[in-house]
Every structure is written in C-alpha cells, then in structure tokens.
Amino acid sequence: MKTSAPVKRVKTVFTSSEIAHVWANRSAPLGRSPSRMSFEGDAFQSYNTVIARHMEHKGKRAVVLNDNPYSSSTARHASYVRSAVRGTQTFHYTGGFGTNLDPSPKQLFEYAVSKAAAFEALAKAPRIRQNTRDGHNASSLHWLAEAAKVNEFFVLHRKVDSAAETAERLAEATRKINARQVKERSAREKAAVEKAAADLILWLNGEPVYLGSAHYNLPVQFRIETDELVSTLGARVPLADAERANRFALARRAKGWHENGEQCEVGMYRLNAINPQGVVAGCHRIAWAEVERVRDMIAAHNLTLTA
Description:
Elements: H1 19-24, E1 30-32, E2 37-40, E3 43-46, E4 49-57, E5 60-66, H2 72-84, E6 90-93, H3 105-123, H4 130-153, H5 163-204, E7 222-225, E8 228-231, E9 236-238, H6 239-251, E10 257-258, E11 265-266, E12 269-270, E13 273-275, E14 278-281, E15 284-287, H7 288-306
Parallel strand pairs: 5-6
Antiparallel strand pairs: 1-2, 2-3, 3-4, 4-5, 7-8, 8-9, 10-13, 11-12, 13-14, 14-15
C-alpha cells in the first residue's frame, strides 16, 4: 500500500516581535499574532485597519505607511512595522478607520505636497516662537522631499521645488513675517506711548486715571493729592517730607551728593544720590526740571492753603 507524503504545515501564527519582519520579507502569504496584528499578501493590519502595504512599480519596491496612529496600541504596532522596513523606500498616506491603504501614485504625491503646504502655512502664523516656526519649516521641507521621492519613484513628471529653493522661499517668508511683526509691534508700542502721554496729562490735572506699565518708560512726574506727593510710578510720600527732600536736593545740586552716613528720608523711602541729571530715589530717576516743578507746585499748594 502506497502512503502519501505528509503535508507540510505552513506557520501562520507569529509573535508580536517577528510578525512584521515576516511580512516585510514576504516570508509567508499570511499570518497573525495574539496582539491583533495580521497580514495577508501585501497588506499589514492592526486590528481591522491596514497600517502598511507593499507597493511595486516597474520592478522597484516600496512600502506605504499609514500616517494615522488611531490608538496607542496601533501606534505600537506601527513601530514594529517601521523597524521591519528600515532600509526600504517608504511613503506615507492616511485614511479613515478600517482603510485599505491603497493610494494611487497621484494621491501619494498630492498628500505629501498638501502636508508640506500645511506646515508652511503654520510657519507663517503670527505670534509663535521662532523655534516653533523653524520646526514647522523643517517639517515642510521633509514632506516636500517625500513628494520628490514619490515623483521620482513613480515617474510622475511633476514639478517639485528643490530643498534649496524651498528653504530660501521659507526663509524669505519668515523674514517677511518677522518684518511684519516688528512693524505691528512698533505700531502697538507707539499707540501705547501716545495713550500714556494723553493719560499723563489727565493724571497731572487731577483726573482719576490709571497709569499702567507704559509710564515706567516715561520720565517720572508728580502730583499732589491732599497732603501727599504721588509719583507716576505709584509711590506716595507725605507732602512735608517731599518739601524737605526737595530743598535738600536743590541745596546740593551744584556739588552733587551720595548717601554715605548722611541720609535724607522721604516717608518710607530715602534719596540715594544727587547728580547732574537729577535725583535718584530707589527706582525713581527724577530730572531737575521735575524737581523744580515740584518745588513750585508745593509752593503754590501752600499758598492756596494759607489764602
């Protein structure tokens, strides 16, 4: 009796660490793993979604990778595939959940170009950090390089800027953005200074106007509120102390002065120096013209009280 040769069983179940390599090397027609990865023919799946597919064109081979991770587990499966196809020409594409991931060469090219354009647009956004802008520009160049590879692989005869041309175009766009931002910032600063000057006039006339941080960059000025001298920086001192300090400063104007043993206290503060530019008291730099105006203002106030 003639016995038939035993049928050779083909292995179809693989571990998570080997299944992507088996598919990448086309070592089996199909396979699966307990971690929900599987393949059949050209398509490699995570759960029910194709995350990679073999492609061929005129004897040349490549792999298209799904650009959408969908979930943390699928992202992990995709990392197995990327490791397995290292050294192979790869392209990227994305589709919806459950996609077959079977784009045409034209779709691959247009996808890469659209990604490059999207990152270039992000790089032109105002008010972003320069390193963020540089990162978007680098991503745009990366996708443009992929479009060029798709163009070459499938011989599409499409026009694609070179990396050097695009880098210069992106650099020029960045220069324009920066110039516009400088112009806008200059306009905002000018408007802030003009508003601060207008508010200062109202404030000096006794109006209840809030003086914001813009006044930190303007010369210090004062006004009298009841029995206090108030500065544009918000400091308040008793008017009597201010009058005494004013006389002290004017008396030492010619020779100058610096606190060294001798002190001149003004309310909770004190004078630090008297120099050719004016008086220094903490963060206050008071020009001589303002010192003289305070002298006259206090004198007029005292006259009003005695009248």
